[in-house]
Amino acid sequence: MANGQYAIITGASTGIGFELAGLAAQAGYDLLIVADEPLITAAADDLRARGATVEAIEADLSTLEGVDRLLDATNGRRIDLLCANAGRGLGHGFLDQNVDDWRRVLDTNITGTIYLLQKVLKDMVARNDGKVLVTGSIAGFMPGSFQAVYNGTKAFIDNFTDAVRNEIKEAKGVTLTTLMPGPVETEFFDRADMLDTSVGADRHKSDPVDVAQDGWDALMAGKASIVSGWKNKVQQALANVTPAGVLAEQHRKMAEPGSASPEELAKAERADH
């Protein structure tokens, strides 16, 4: 048990982040959880009902000010564990996307994430102790037709964490783990306006409980990275040897608006009721 240790979990109102928070609480960490929506309060109540010590904050982590607000909420307490899970998706063709929308994806998935990592990792490396889990994605291995900005941000995160892990390798007591799931059954596709796509309507996406457990186990073992799910492991391996044009066309078939068949949409609607 982590008795008395302190963890920050971002994007913790639902999905993978909420499940990671539950695992951290179960391991004995005191929690500071954050999301950019009021639902984070309900998430905190749920975790407290399980016996966790939790503080919740609503903050926009696409801004440096939002990240600073999160860090201020620690009141100077040492951060023993960080799960940098906050992320935002965006569907449709790039030329049709609103500038404010794609900038928020970039600022949430990249700018806010790496600013938070720089702040937290500096202290961890200085004392040679700490654990960090960053949620990347196997989407970073594929040109994301009709999800181009999102996939590009995850390619950045997957690559960035590999680089920083090497930079801090002398700090043996600090681990930086990248969690790379595939499509997960969360609110992601609804928020990204992708429910009419083949991938959005697919009812066989990964369970966030399983993905969080994979990430947690890898984090606790000090692994560099983990691809969650055997199908995603195969997809990652194939992506390394498949031409970019082929991958882009494959992604188009999954993510193009209206790509979900009537049968897929009907199954998705039945599953939601």
From TrEMBL:
<dbReference type="GO" id="GO:0016491">
    <property type="term" value="F:oxidoreductase activity"/>
</dbReference>
<dbReference type="InterPro" id="IPR002347">
    <property type="entry name" value="SDR_fam"/>
</dbReference>
<dbReference type="GO" id="GO:0016020">
    <property type="term" value="C:membrane"/>
</dbReference>
<dbReference type="Pfam" id="PF00106">
    <property type="entry name" value="adh_short"/>
</dbReference>
<dbReference type="InterPro" id="IPR036291">
    <property type="entry name" value="NAD(P)-bd_dom_sf"/>
</dbReference>
<protein>
    <submittedName>
        <fullName>SDR family NAD(P)-dependent oxidoreductase</fullName>
    </submittedName>
</protein>
<dbReference type="InterPro" id="IPR020904">
    <property type="entry name" value="Sc_DH/Rdtase_CS"/>
</dbReference>
<keyword id="KW-0560">Oxidoreductase</keyword>
<feature type="compositionally biased region" description="Basic and acidic residues">
    <location>
        <begin position="264"/>
        <end position="273"/>
    </location>
</feature>
<comment type="similarity">
    <text>Belongs to the short-chain dehydrogenases/reductases (SDR) family.</text>
</comment>
<feature type="region of interest" description="Disordered">
    <location>
        <begin position="251"/>
        <end position="273"/>
    </location>
</feature>
